[in-house]
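Weekly puzzle thread! Below is a chain. First person to post its structure in token form gets bragging rights.
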Amino acid sequence: MDGPAGPKMDLISSVFGSLKVEEQNEVLARLFRACQLSQLKEVYDELCPLLSIDFVSTLPQELVERIFSYLSGEDLLRMACCNKSWRECTNTDILWQPLCALKNWLNFGTDKQLFTDGPYCYRSTGLTSPRYNRPKFSDHTSLSPTCRWKEIYIRACHLNQNWTLGRYTVLPLLRGHQGRVDCLDCDGKWLVSGSSDKTARVWDLFTASCLHVLDNHTDAVTCVCIKLEVIVTGCADSLIRIFQLETGTCLRALMGHSSGIDQLCFDGTKVVSASSDRTLRVWSIQDGRCRKILRGHEDEIQYLTMKEHLIASTSWDHTIRIWDIHRGVCTAFLKGHTEVVNCCQFDCRYVVSGGGDCLVLIWSIDSGKLVHKCQGHVGDVYCLKFNEKSICSGSSDSTIRVWDFTGKCLFIMTEHIGVVRSLHLNGNRLVSGGDRKKILVWNILEGKLVNVIHRNPSLLHKVWINETKIITASPESPGILTILSYW
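Winning reply:
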């Protein structure tokens, strides 16, 4: 310091340095007591940087990773903004993969949906656009690339925000069918639709164009499945046809049923079909042979669902049957409904069914016994979905009910007008489709409506939903398909 005070400051510093530690502490205490509040604040501001310790640079990497593993994804993202070393330490798959697992996002590690640029025909770019703008690090070339699971986490968060805020794009309508669209299936890249005009059409979701017209059928196409670039169609002419997706070529027709095909399940190697002749058949697509014929239902089969080697079928005879398709036997016969059973879902613990008697029934898959009865709907239950904690059911009474596995009704959600026809459950997000063109997004943890999708241009008849898209078909003729993309 220059001026007369300079020598004094030097003397004070010299004397202070010659004191013992205890004496220095006493001097500091007296000085602090003599300071004004503004002076103490200046001292505090000077001390903070001197007392800060960057534990990231001093601790072993293993301990740093262990500390960071207790943080949320949001915390890690904030910490990455502190400095370069912290960003690099938080940029590891070891930290981000468990966070993706907690959110049930591990499927995005193999599913490429979030790493596509989206359809070529995006039109909206404003506040409603779901487009993801990848962060650029042009000014930080020394930073390592974002690790894979961190990238997945960020993209999945953006996707969830699109659903919450109602940000999506309507692709050009898919036109071509002359009759009503009666069935559809999708693998995320290709869409197959079947119609009463005796054709099935294969559509490219990224260009909204028709790739093939499958016109080998002699009657209405009633059901379709697509898996591993193989298409299976069921027809009212009683035949099941296998097509190669790439060429649209019909590889073979499976003959055996004596009436029209009503339901299909396909796992890539085996086809299970349900017909108006009240039987189920198990087919091998490699040679087209019927491996098993499953008999037991006394009326037409209403619904069919498959999980590994087990099939659940529901019927107008008021029953559900669980079949082992390897052995060709019925392993459980569930009788409790008093009307047609419209829908069901099952896992390793439960079978849950919904029927025309307004009931949702919960069965033990091991014992086949009815364990809980969910009462409350005043109309037919047409659709249901469940996860580890909750059961959701949609009814002709225009409501959706959320139940727990003791049969207790947690929420009644009442925004629909007319029949609730479809449900898609992903974590705590439920997407429901019903009459009057309405598609709704719900948070079932709180029983609250998140948003209403108003822009569906036609009445709903068939709906297919996954993490990034909603595809709908109207009950009108000629058949039109609509694709809403959230990515």
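Puzzle host: Confirmed. Bonus trivia for everyone else. Residues 148-165 form the longest helix (18 residues).
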